[in-house]
Design brief:
The chain is an alpha+beta fold. The protein folds into 4 domains: 1-154, Winged helix-like DNA-binding domain superfamily/Winged helix DNA-binding domain (Arc Repressor Mutant, subunit A, Orthogonal Bundle); 155-257, Arc Repressor Mutant, subunit A, CATH 1.10.10; 266-339, no CATH class; 345-451, no CATH class. Helices cover 50% and strands 16% of the residues. It contains 19 helices and 14 strands. It has helices spanning 15-21, 28-32, 41-53, 68-75, 82-93, 135-138, 150-153, 159-173, 183-190, 201-219, 275-284, 290-296, 299-314, 322-329, 341-387, 401-411, 417-428, 430-439, 442-451; strands at 2-4, 7-10, 23-27, 63-67, 97-102, 107-112, 114-120, 125-130, 145-149, 178-182, 222-229, 238-245, 391-392, 395-396. A hairpin with a 4-residue loop joins strand 5 (97-102) and strand 6. Helix 4 (68-75) crosses helix 5 (82-93), helix 15 (341-387) crosses helix 19 (442-451) and helix 17 (417-428) crosses helix 18 (430-439). The longest helix has 47 residues, at 341-387. The radius of gyration is 33 Å and the shape is elongated. The termini are far apart.
Length: 454
């Protein structure tokens, strides 16, 4: 690297040195306390590369003048496309907002990654300037910051892998190898995973947590496991992470050509499905650009679109060009599939019905539990009456005359054991007994009492 005033000139000759020495150091406040925007792979690689060029002991942010050859290494492409890719990446870095609260002034702050970019195709370079608002989080860092090797993160495949890696490194640096995070904060604020697709925890786990777990294990210096914590409720409230060193971490070259998005492994597909079956079905629908499209979307996305399509076919929706319909429904590469409104409405109806059935089952279990508890109370009272000599011929002797008359008229003059227990319930615990009758489980309480050999 060469310094010309406040400009740092980066050339291809600096690559080997950068591989050996580059560390990214970022304030924990920026990692944990800020909401990072979701970046494309090219935007993410470019900003990580720039962060790797910063010396945390510098007094001010420098202008980075990067050669086309070096940018080609960053993006993993030939130089012919570099200006096009760089143009798109810098547009994103100059428009997508990082949001945080200034801890000193207690102000809500919005800032972009880049404040200015310049390029010269004639001279073969691009100039990049980070936003001044990021200076407190990147320079003169003391104490509360986390650092990691550039080589360990620049090849991560998406925003979610990077953000999960960062929070793991923060807690590992704090000597907390196991830690817990609130699920709502983690999804919406930290990961910016606000799509309704992630409302269901199993979908969130399948589409974000597990892919990131594999990505981080394959490319970085750490491994992690996780488990959901429901905190005595049916809904997941938080996630408990455990992190450790990756013994298989290899010192790979810092820049690798980005791999195309891989399909989910064959054994991760549901029974009856395979890569070949997915491709065969798409060919049968006349789907165009099959090879490229298969590389852009994971198998789970294809299974979702087939589920949606099959639903419409079953409901009698007329779809003349099924291949075209599928293409129109596909999300951007790396994004989750969004089901059609008709499918979502039906799914919501089914979920609502299942939820009602589940609540009914839960209520029934609660009522049964209540009845059993009341049955124990009746049994204990009957035993007490027997010992006191107030229980004779299946009848409660202390019952008031009008109550005896009521019970005799209702259950015959000489009441059986069940009616006798009922008389105890009415005479001593009438309010609770009437409540159980309204719930339809009063007879259960009496049976439970009788089964204990009244």
């Amino acid at each position: 690297m060469k310094f010309i005033g406040n400009i740092v000139l980066i050339t291809g000759k600096d690559l080997q040195k950068l591989e050996e020495t580059s560390l990214i150091a970022v304030s924990n406040d920026l990692i944990i306390g800020a909401q990072w925007p979701k970046l494309t792979l090219d935007e993410q690689r470019l900003i990580l590369y720039m962060l790797g060029l910063i010396d945390k002991w510098d007094d001010d942010l420098k202008v980075f003048k990067i050669s086309v050859k070096e940018l080609a290494n960053v993006f993993g492409v030939r130089t012919k496309r570099i200006y096009e890719l760089c143009d798109k990446a810098t547009d994103g870095l100059m428009t997508k907002l990082i949001k945080f609260v200034d801890p000193i002034e207690n102000e809500r702050v919005k800032v972009t990654w880049c404040a200015e970019t310049r390029e010269s195709q004639e001279k073969g370079y691009v100039k990049l300037v980070l936003s001044p608002g990021l200076k407190p989080f990147l320079l003169a860092l003391k104490g509360r910051f986390t650092s990691w090797e550039l080589r360990a993160v620049i090849n991560l495949k998406n925003h979610y892998s990077l953000r999960i890696y960062q929070i793991l490194k923060v807690y590992k640096g704090l000597k907390q190898d196991t830690f817990e995070v609130d699920l709502t904060w983690f999804k919406q604020k930290y990961l910016d995973a606000t799509s309704k697709t992630y409302n269901n925890f199993n979908d969130f786990k399948r589409r974000i947590l597990i892919p990131a777990q594999k990505d981080i294990a394959a490319k970085t210096d750490i491994l992690f496991t996780f488990k959901a914590d429901k905190k005595k409720t049916r809904k997941v409230q938080s996630i408990i992470f455990s992190v450790e060193d990756n013994p298989n971490f290899k010192q790979l070259p810092i820049f690798q050509k980005p791999e195309p998005e891989k399909f989910v492994f064959e054994n991760e597909l549901p029974p009856g499905w395979s890569d070949d079956k997915i491709s065969t079905r798409l060919k049968g629908y006349g789907f165009k650009g099959l090879e490229k499209a298969r590389k852009q979307h994971e198998n789970l996305t294809w299974l979702d679109v087939f589920t949606d399509l099959d639903f419409h076919i079953e409901k009698g929706t007329k779809i003349a060009n099924k291949g075209g319909w599928i293409r129109s429904m596909l999300p951007e590469p790396g994004e989750p599939y969004v089901f059609s409104p008709m499918f979502k409405k039906e799914k919501e109806r089914i979920i609502k019905k299942e939820k009602a059935a589940g609540e009914l089952k839960k209520d029934k279990q609660e009522n049964e539990k209540r009845a059993r508890k009341f049955g124990v109370l009746l049994y204990e009272k009957v035993q007490e009456l027997k010992e006191a000599g107030e229980w004779e011929d299946g009848f409660l002797l202390r019952a008031q005359e009008k109550q005896k008359k009521y019970l005799k008229e209702r259950y015959t003059e000489r009441m059986g054991r069940g009616e006798a227990v009922r008389s105890v319930a009415v005479f001593y615990f009438n309010e609770e007994f009437q409540r159980l009758e309204s719930l339809g489980v009063s007879i259960n309480a009496i049976r439970f009492c009788l089964n204990k050999s009244v």
